[in-house]
Amino acid sequence: MNKINIAIDGPAGAGKSTVAKAVASLLQYVYIDTGAMYRALAWVALKNNIDTQEDWSLSALLQNTNIILEPSSIGNRVFVNQEEVTDAIRSNEVTAAVSDVSAHAGVREQMVKKQQQLAEGKGAVLDGRDIGTTVLPDAELKVYLIASVEERAKRRHDEHVDKGRSSDLETIRRDIQSRDEKDASREISPLIKAEDAIEIDTTQLSAEEVASRVINLAEERI
Ligand code: C5P
Asked: Mind telling me which HAMAP family this protein's record contains (predicted)?
């Protein structure tokens, strides 16, 4: 069977990673969480007191940092220089810093190259912000997921509560909005729907319903 690449983009909390994981698992494809790569860099920058506004120091740091995504049943386990940071990169501090880190040209250039290499063999599902526009402009299937900000904040909040983490719905809503604004207004590869992407509004849909729509779209292209 022909293998294709699938790009899943959209704003924070639209269900990208849940859907991408489910689709990858059903098709037996590789799942690549590109946001986790930016989060890993933000984590290591914060740890080393590196200014998140400085492209050159972040780019140099990235050059000397080994970020590995390991496939696992929970999605990707993430390692920075062999230290596992799967949970650490979801902290509030990293979430608050990541959009500044990801806005820099030098950082994005290196990340995009790595992501393209990971998807080289086809059979990959990548989720992020610029997969359909920049990382894989030739992906056979591009999906752009959206949902109301209230629904997205509620999903994140429920996720935190499920994991036993402290969580405040209003703070999450504000964080999501501010991250979206930064991601959509940055100069390089902003969050934007690719012209040939299929938009799905997930506000009223379950993750299973969205995954099954994406699988149907993929099967038409395989
Ligand atoms: O997907 P997630 O919310 O974990 O992504 C964290 C951040 O990483 C985003 O808010 C965005 O700033 C950045 N990102 C990006 N390009 C991608 C994936 C994520 O700029 N392809």
From this structure: Cytidyl_kinase_type1
β pairing state of 83-84 and 75-80: antiparallel
The binding site for ATP comprises 10-18
How many angstroms separate the first and last alpha carbons of the chain?
A: 7
Ligand 1 and 133: CB distance under 6 A:
no
The domain made up of 5-210 has a fold known as: Rossmann fold (3.40.50)
pTM of the full predicted structure? 0.97
For the CA of 180, the nearest atom of ligand 1:
10
Asked if the interface predicted TM-score (ipTM) of this complex is over 0.95, the answer is yes
Q: Which ligand 1 atom sits closest to the C-alpha of 9? A: 21
Residue 179 in contact with residue 156, Cβ under 8 Å? no
- Report which of 19, 11, 38 is spatially closest to residue 141, judged by C-alpha positions: 19
Could you tell me which of 1, 4, 60, 2 has the C-alpha nearest to residue 214? 4
Tokens at 31, concatenated: 């799942």
